[in-house]
Amino acid sequence: MKKWGYHIILLVLTILTLFAPADTLAQSGRYENLTSRELVALLNEECERGQMANCYEAGQMYMSAESEASKAKGRKLVQKACKGGHENACEFLKGGLARDTGSDLLFYSSIGLIGLAVYLVTIMMFQDEEEFKASEKLEDGDKKSSPTENYGIVLRYSKPFFKRYVTPIVSSMKNKKKIKEKYKRKLASAGLTDVLTPEDFFSFKIFLIVGFPIVFFGIRVFLEEEWPLTLIPIIGAVGFVYPDIWIKGRIEMRQKEVIMAMPFCVDMLALSVEAGLDFVAAMTKVVEKAKKTALSEEFETMIKEIRIGASRAEALRNLAWRIDLIQISSFCATLIAADSVGASIGPILKALSMEIRQKKSSEVEKAGATAATKILFPMLFLIVPAVFIVVAAPIVLELVVGKK
């Protein structure tokens, strides 16, 4: 509640500051070196252009003179300002204001309140700085190093901000349990559990609602374009949806990587088991010898779970839950069934390896068979017109030249 109070105070003071600066030339520091005569001339010019605030200020300056003619002229200017909608001029005519000091008061009050806001925000930032650094050290100790450079430029430059300022707010929300349930499996399937927590991912979405429009506005100013500002809500909505699209792409890419690595890893696992190693030792050998892939990383995670006390069946279920792929689910279900009845997994792994290779070969053949159909439309619209031009162009030219 304390943090929210600081944010509300800062927001109110910022809005107040936008309306605080005085709008008259006399109140602007740019004309402080002018003489009274030059200043009155400038105010009259601006008054003739329809700026009522300058009419009011010029009228006050005339009325402060000793001559009755100047006072009468000043009163006419104040009346003109009142008719033009200047509230202070109307109050002055009614006797409510002796001099227009309200704008100056508001201006200097705003400056003081801005200083107070900066002080409060600074205090807020440094009060929990040590707590934030301690939590960062704990997270770094629990998780292996996973540089965000590998996960895209958006996450790389956004993470320091939403991790520091948005995640603490999301973590204190009452419905954070629903957020965990919604995004925990997606992060596991994408292999991002060491990079983002469910709260971090939701904070990422919220941060981009503001981040994308800021980038849009910066590019707009830098390129000096006149893109409509009405696009900002649409860009903010795109920012909220972007993390879901991004993580969906990472899940699909990771699942393809797992499918490609399955034949070799299952072959290696079958050979290790048939050579006399137990299941955990065979998995360890696969992780050591196989190329670094998403599947080998998941095998390594499964080994750690078994070593800290999880049963083989539980570790296999967790593996299938994390990868969320039919082939892996079938593989894990077969091993769990064999383990439950006490059967030897060596022949089962060998049969699974042959089945996986056959499925992969059939998928490759299927992809090759559909390639001809997929290339039909590009060939029809791109290659055939080019060939037609090459063949028909000389004939058309000969007919045209022959007629001449």
From TrEMBL:
RNA-binding listed as a keyword: no
Keywords: Cell membrane, Membrane, Transmembrane, Transmembrane helix
One matching Pfam family: T2SSF
Compartments, as annotated in UniProt: Cell membrane
InterPro entries: T2SS_GspF_dom, T2SS_GspF_sf
Membrane topology listed for this record: Multi-pass membrane protein
Gene Ontology annotations for the cellular component aspect, listed alphabetically: plasma membrane
Residues in Type II secretion system protein GspF domain copies: 267-391
Transmembrane segments: 105-126, 206-223, 229-247, 375-397
Major place of residence: membrane
Protein name: Membrane protein
Species annotation: Halobacteriovorax marinus (strain ATCC BAA-682 / DSM 15412 / SJ)
